[in-house]
Amino acid sequence: MKKHNFSAGPAILPQSVMQEASEACIEFNGMGMSILEISHRSKQFDAVELEARQLVHEIGGFDDRFAVLFLSGGASTQFALAPMNLLKEGEKAAYVDTGVWASKAIKEAKLFGKAEVLASSKDSNYSFIPKSYDIPSDAAYLHLTSNNTIYGTQLHEFPKSPVPIVCDMSSDMYSRPFDVEQFGLVYAGAQKNLGAAGVTIVIVRKDLIGRSERQLPSMFDYKLHLENGSMYNTPPVFSLYVTMLTLRWLKEQGGLAAIQKHNESKAAILYNEIDANPLFKGTVAVEDRSLMNVCFLPTNADHEAPFMEMAKAAGIDGIKGHRSVGGFRASIYNAMPQSSVQVLVDVMREFAQKNG
Amino acid sequence: MKKHNFSAGPAILPQSVMQEASEACIEFNGMGMSILEISHRSKQFDAVELEARQLVHEIGGFDDRFAVLFLSGGASTQFALAPMNLLKEGEKAAYVDTGVWASKAIKEAKLFGKAEVLASSKDSNYSFIPKSYDIPSDAAYLHLTSNNTIYGTQLHEFPKSPVPIVCDMSSDMYSRPFDVEQFGLVYAGAQKNLGAAGVTIVIVRKDLIGRSERQLPSMFDYKLHLENGSMYNTPPVFSLYVTMLTLRWLKEQGGLAAIQKHNESKAAILYNEIDANPLFKGTVAVEDRSLMNVCFLPTNADHEAPFMEMAKAAGIDGIKGHRSVGGFRASIYNAMPQSSVQVLVDVMREFAQKNG
């Protein structure tokens, strides 16, 4: 039976990407070897890194004032690397606390300076995105989390900021257009919209690199990675290759404007059903609803198990909500087809008919 | 034409591993999904991590006094994490400088304390392993590099040390038995003998974790990774899976004693030819010759290009020596079959017949 993969991440990838990745594990690019065994110094892999980098630029629509790095360690490593690279000794950075991951970013920043929390929705279990706060102009940067995977909230408009924005876009990077000019640093683990787990995409304004003036271990220094084209040491070859394939696919889909339409359309189908169906309800402020992670609860808690069972029977996988929210979470990243969202909606309707 | 992959790393993997990895990119473990899209919190992936961890213990023959972690960032990240986790403020660590990678490890350690270099073979372009040095008993640890990929030297006997040994085993871990009792910390990027690039295997004595008493960023703290079973954040799922497959294969080969025999046999065939063939010569002290990376030069520099051409014509790939040594380097890791080494030796003989 066909599975509909609503997992929050690692998450569904385009079928064509998985097919091509599978083939490359046997034979890559006519080399007579597997992508798993080739040198990262080969011209064939150089071409992979270059194409991935150029595609990040091209799809994002920005020039070489920004560096594109492919690192490892996930966004959690960037929580530390951002202040290590951008925050001078004694300076402060501004943070908005919109969830567990934002909190973790704040915790790491405190090891390197002052982290001023401008606003938090923690008391409401992060069910909305705080919007009215002043951004101190003496902060080194403003740190935001654009999409909160666990709670299903998303920042639909970035604030005007007097200081560069540093943004964890792990769960919505390249799911919609964004104006990179506002940002000093953007980072995302690949495993939502940009590939398989194991590589982290970093976009950083070149003139901010080295800003902290700290003496950093080599691997934590953006400067070194820029100078070495993300190949100071062996990069995560296969993960970077899968990211390149995913970026190619994204370009073929028409880029960010086209994928945004696709994502809006999918999310509308699902949120409309949540609002219309008496057996379900959303969990977050309507204006902050995420186009990536759609969280909802059964209006009757007893319905949780039987609905999950009916969904499973329809091939739906990965919709169990995070323990801190409960209920259900349907993650509908770029590669999620509308037809799979429709299957979920159909099950919700069928469930309501049987139990309503 | 069949390729014989002598690449220094990423390097040849067992054919069965690449085949199984390829299949898992389409369908993993009967889940109806690809390994690239499944949650790292799924019970199926939990089983992968657990099996990999247990295999590291079982094949290495050590118990739970040692933790096994699967991290990212390669050995270069461990160059910093070792002192960050094990070296107290004001303490010193002892290092032996056996190559570029050892030098890089020394550089990182200096950011966190005193790094005393006990011995170095730099003046001889690292063509031997220094052996006569005193290990200070007040050092926090002794850092060694067990195999020097670039130069083709290998430590065939670890010194008796009054302090725990920290060892970068990136290019020979699990190519031979070793007694873990002497070690405080062992680390290796997977991409030589243990899988594909993207995951780093760390073995650390549990009672040394937290020794430095430093307040570390979460992702740089062994304690946090131990507490979270290497899944504090999303691990490099696919790379860890390939490592598990490679460890399974290694166990099937008979484990470390058996693979050592296999490796000794392959290396002997090649070194014997280098010593017997008048057109080639070895580059390092005979007693320090690596079983993993066999470096050799043409006795006549003019022979370099034509030999390379003849080797290529025979399907031999990746034998160009590192620029700092020149000539040729045949990397013959665990997965390299003896038949491929024989192809190389045959070409060397044929070349000597034609040009001798």
Can you tell me about this structure?
The structure is a homodimer of 356-residue chains. In chain A, 35% of the residues lie in helices and 17% in strands. Chain A is α/β, with parallel strands linked by helices and 356 residues long. Chain A folds into two domains: 15-252, Type I PLP-dependent aspartate aminotransferase-like (Major domain) (Aspartate Aminotransferase, domain 2), CATH 3.40.640.10; 254-355, Aspartate Aminotransferase, domain 1 (Alpha-Beta Complex). Chain A has a seven-stranded mixed β-sheet with strand order 2-10-9-8-5-3-4, with helices on both faces. In chain A, strands 11-12-14 form a three-stranded antiparallel β-sheet, covered by helices on one side. Chain A has a two-stranded parallel sheet with strand order 1-13. In chain A, strand 6 and strand 7 form a beta hairpin. In chain A, helix 1 (15-24) runs antiparallel to helix 6 (237-252), helix 2 crosses helix 6 and helix 3 packs parallel to helix 4 (100-109). Chain A starts with a strand and ends with a helix. The model of chain A has no long low-confidence stretch (mean pLDDT 97).
Salient structural properties:
Aspartate Aminotransferase, domain 2, three-stranded antiparallel β-sheet, about 350 residues, alpha/beta, about 35% helix, Aspartate Aminotransferase, domain 1, seven-stranded mixed β-sheet
